[in-house]
Amino acid sequence: MDFLHFNAASYGYGKSFHLHEVSFTLSRGRFSGIIGPNGSGKTTLLKGISGELLVGRNQIYLDGCDMSRMTGRERARKIACVTQFAESIDVTVEEYVLMGRIPYRRKMQVFETSEDFEIAEKYMKLTDVYSLRHKKFSKLSGGEQQLVSIAKALTQEPDLLLLDEPTSHLDIMHQVQMLNLIQELVQKLNLTVLMIIHDLNLASEYCDYLVLMSEGRVFDCGTPMEILNYKNIEEVYKTVVITETNPLSKKPAIFLVSGKVLNSRNV
């Protein structure tokens, strides 16, 4: 069933960069990735969904609803976004996670309800940050802050989770930990996830579906097996690669070739 649908969406930043006629559809409960070179439109695409950029009528639909007609409150109850860098504020982890309940506050409500605390506790435990709940968010490591940010996003109880390069500043151990967690959340919660990611091997291994962007347009979209072939990668990234198959996952694995090796073979 169609869950997120882009219908020839064209939007952007005033007279500068714009997306052009972007069309694709994501199903509910899938872990999808947005890939493409720097400047191809990945973040612009995400900002149209989150509401940070204005998008016209009948261009983006979420679960059958035209997103241009949604109020900010409606959008915040359906969509949560985790950015690359969390704002390092001087509150406890529990207080930070509870901010995810703001879209559900009633008029004149000042304090969190017992239900808010129960929901925050549930997702802190699910993301394995409950033991950090009394620590200051600003004192956590980058990897811990990302996990806490995901707990806060889940506390919004969204239908769609947007992730903007969540692994870009993490070492390989924390990258795998983060993506294993997201994969598990998709399965447990029937959550739909759309993530910008630069590492093509991680995108291949973890994502069910990929949207390949190039120069403000969708170059191609489909499963990792359909998208991550050397022809697509070389055309979009202008880089020579070799693609093989991971013997365990059967997903594509991408190998780079240095200029030194290429030059030696051309001699």
Gist?
The chain is of the alpha/beta class and 267 residues long. The chain contains 10 helices and 12 strands.
Describe it for me?
This protein is α/β, with parallel strands linked by helices. It contains 10 helices and 12 strands. The chain has helices at 42-50, 72-78, 93-98, 114-126, 142-155, 172-189, 200-206, 224-227, 230-237, 259-266, and strands at residues 2-9, 22-27, 31-35, 60-62, 65-66, 79-82, 160-164, 192-196, 209-214, 217-222, 241-245, 252-256. The strands form 3 sheets. Strands 6-7-8-3-9-10 form a 6-stranded mixed beta sheet, sandwiched between helices. The chain has a 4-stranded antiparallel beta sheet with strand order 2-1-4-5, with no helix packed on it. A two-stranded antiparallel sheet has the order 11-12. The longest helix has 18 residues, at 172-189. It is globular and about 70 Å long. The chain starts with a strand and ends with a helix.
Key features of this structure:
22% strand, 267 residues, alpha/beta, six-stranded mixed sheet
Protein topology:
Layout: E1 2-9, E2 22-27, E3 31-35, H1 42-50, E4 60-62, E5 65-66, H2 72-78, E6 79-82, H3 93-98, H4 114-126, H5 142-155, E7 160-164, H6 172-189, E8 192-196, H7 200-206, E9 209-214, E10 217-222, H8 224-227, H9 230-237, E11 241-245, E12 252-256, H10 259-266
Parallel strand pairs: 3-8, 3-9, 6-7, 7-8
Antiparallel strand pairs: 1-2, 1-4, 4-5, 9-10, 11-12
Helix pairs in contact: 4-5
